[in-house]
Every structure is written in structure tokens, then in C-alpha cells.
Amino acid sequence: MNLNLQGKVAAITGGSEGIGYAIAEAYAREGCKVAICSRSQAKLDKAAAEFKAKGLGELYTESVDVSEADRLYAFVDHVKRDLGRIDIWVNNTGTTIVKSILELSLDEWNFVLRTNLNSYFIGTQAAGRVMKEQGGGVILNVASYGGILPPMYRSAYCTSKFGINGLTRMAASEFAPFGIRVNAVAPGTINTAMQAAAGRTKEDVERVARNFALHRPGEPEEVANVALFLTSDMSSYIDGVVLECSGGKFLAQDNNTAWEQRR
What we know:
Elements (H helix, E strand, L loop, with lengths): L8 E5 L4 H12 L3 E6 L2 H13 L6 E4 L5 H15 L4 E4 L14 H29 L2 E6 L12 H21 L4 E8 L5 H5 L4 H8 L10 H11 L11 E4 L9 H8 L1
Parallel strand pairs: 1-2, 1-4, 2-3, 4-5, 5-6, 6-7
Helix pairs in contact: 1-8, 3-4, 4-5
């Protein structure tokens, strides 16, 4: 399979751990120059050290709080300045607050929306301007199954993810004449730090995953494989889609019966 990514520049927000880091590593293995940003300088340093230890070359890093618009716009400018272009832009940052709508404060709501949705708009806009000028590119939004079938007590998070689905389709429509494709991947339950942030233990995750068709949670590398496909020439005729990567979460109703019969 020739993904034709050698020498391309890929930039990922929230790329220091979890899904973002797995995507960064996957691009590096395909010969891309990779840039990431994250709020935590310590996590960025750790990611850069892991790249070197694995022989993946130099990782371009910058400490950025994506909820601050000026800093995210600046990151795009810096990647373009230092690496010459942006062929692939991945909007990946995400945060959640687990509370009832009746208890969620407006400040909490706004924080989640700034981080999860506003940053995707800014990244799409800024990277889209660079790509229009250079004659093309690909934008990938890391959405969520929560933007398809929302879980309880995550109103701000799920609203942001529904918004990302809409932004993906609108940007795809507007950017197509400039040679820019825009797609999204919607992960289900993936083994990342966000599960712990949402109050789920490892046992909780595994118990929930037994209701999925594949009977297990996903790994960040499995989402990264979808990212590679959606941003490579292998998906050259795919635009404006939100591709679910959930291990058959929607098939969960009575899947345990099939697994028991298999035994």
C-alpha cells in the first residue's frame, strides 16, 4: 500500500499523548516531517525524546493552549515558517467535564467549547489559508462517537463533537475547489488518558467494551491507521465524511450472546 506521504509536513494539535501522539508517530514512520502542539511542555519534551529513541527523527514541538486563539494561529504560522508548508493538518485536542446540564456552569461550558470546537475552527481556517495558497492539502478532524450517540452528562463535550461533524462537512464543501479535502474520524472508546479524566477506571472501560461488536476498547494506534488512510492518496475520492472507528459500538445491543455461542 503506497500512502504517498514521504516528505510531507503534518501538524497535529494535542499531539503529545494518546491518539494525537499515535497519529504523529504514524506519520513519522511514513516519512513525514511532524509538528505537534500541547499545553504541557513536559509532555512535549517526553514525546520528542520518544521520537529520537525510536529513530523517528526530530519532532517539531510548541507549547500551545488551543483555547487561546492567538497562540493557535501563531502555531500555524510557525509551522509554515519553519517547515515550509503544511500538507496535513490534524485537529485533535479535546477535553470533557462530566456534569448534568443542571449543574454545568457557563464558564465550564465555554471552556469545553473553546477547547473542542473553537480550536477546530481556528485550525481549519488557518491551515486552510496556508493550503489554499500552496495549492492543496488535507485536514482531518478527530471527532468522537459522542457526536453520533451522546453519553449522559457530557453535554458540552457532545455538543462540541456534533459541531465538529458539521464543520467537517461545511469546510469540505468550501475548500474542495482549492484542492483541499476535509474529513473526520470518530473514535469510540479508546484506551487514552481521557477515559480516566471522565472518571472511568480500566475495569470500567473493559466492562463497557464488552457491549461492542469487537468486545474490546480500541487502541490509539488503530485510530492513527484511519488517520493515515483519510489523509493519504488512498482516500483521494473521499471528502466530507465522518468515519466511525468504534469497534462496532452501534451493534452493541445483544452482541454478548454471539460471543457466548462462539465459545
